[in-house]
Amino acid sequence: ARKNARRTITIFTSDMEEASRQRAAIAIDLRGAVQNGELELFFQPQNDARTRSLCGFEALVRWRHPQHGLISPVDFIPVAEETGQILEIGRWVLETACTTAAGWPERFKVAVNVSAFQLAQDTLPLQVATALSKSGLKPERLEIEITESGVITDQEHALKIVLALKELGVSVAMDDFGTGYSSLSTLQSFPFDKIKIDREFVKSLTVSPQSAAIVRSTILLGASLGIPVLAEGVETEEQLGFLQLEGCKSVQGYLFGEPLPERRAAKMIEAALES
Ligand code: C2E
Ligand code: CA
Ligand code: CA
Ligand code: CA
């Protein structure tokens, strides 16, 4: 038993070491990633819940590592936040998303994720303004998605940044609604233009009365505040049916499409225009 216990501890320690080694390796490899053109943007459709028509796309970043292939943002965005590399990556994401969207017909919008570290700086409004002017994209076609974790550390500063963004004419969405510690007070303090209900609640919508109640209440809350609600992670017709019935404004999820490379997003736009 003793031997086993020791072995467990050894494995645990080496796993932690392995994890931190991996993070360090990622940070080093990430250094040249932007300049070497290793980042790619994928685009996931966002659709009107009632009519099902295409409204726009959320831009989601991936890293094509020369040895390891396509790496998920879940694995490198947290590292980039720790090292500050997120600033350079964030600028690249903004400029690439705006340039791509500028090539789409005017009625399609693009949503871009911004992380806590980016919001904590003063540079974001200028980065956004630069991305808009370089690409020629109209500000009302750009939406910035921020999570609660991005605004709670220094609320006052985050609010200043959000107001400056809105001054530019872009809209601001609250991402992952319901997963933080103070979703309601964040909603009270920030002038959001959209609420995105987290996938966690949508996932169990049709099997859990609790999830159904939370989703229903969030849609109602949005209606009372005059803020449209988007449901994330919609995978089934049954989920869509519930959301339509409750008056959810828009939807995003595998039912309408996974995140697509730029060319496949363009094809989806063509198909939407023909129908
Ligand atoms: P998120 O903003 O909540 O993005 C939605 C995630 O859910 C995406 O994962 C998407 O592929 C996935 N998803 C969408 N629909 C479905 C569905 O129907 N079912 C399931 N099971 N999953 C679905 P992804 O692309 O791996 O992104 C993960 C997270 O990484 C994002 O979560 C976002 O927080 C972050 N991220 C992505 N791109 C960027 C970026 O450019 N900048 C920053 N700061 N963060 C980013
Ligand atoms: Ca998002
Ligand atoms: Ca989200
Ligand atoms: Ca989420």
Automatic annotation (TrEMBL):
Please report the stretch or stretches of sequence annotated as the EAL domain. 23-273
What top-level branch of life does the organism fall under? Bacteria
Q: What is the recorded name of this protein?
A: Bifunctional diguanylate cyclase/phosphodiesterase
The shown residues of the full protein are 403 to 677 of 701
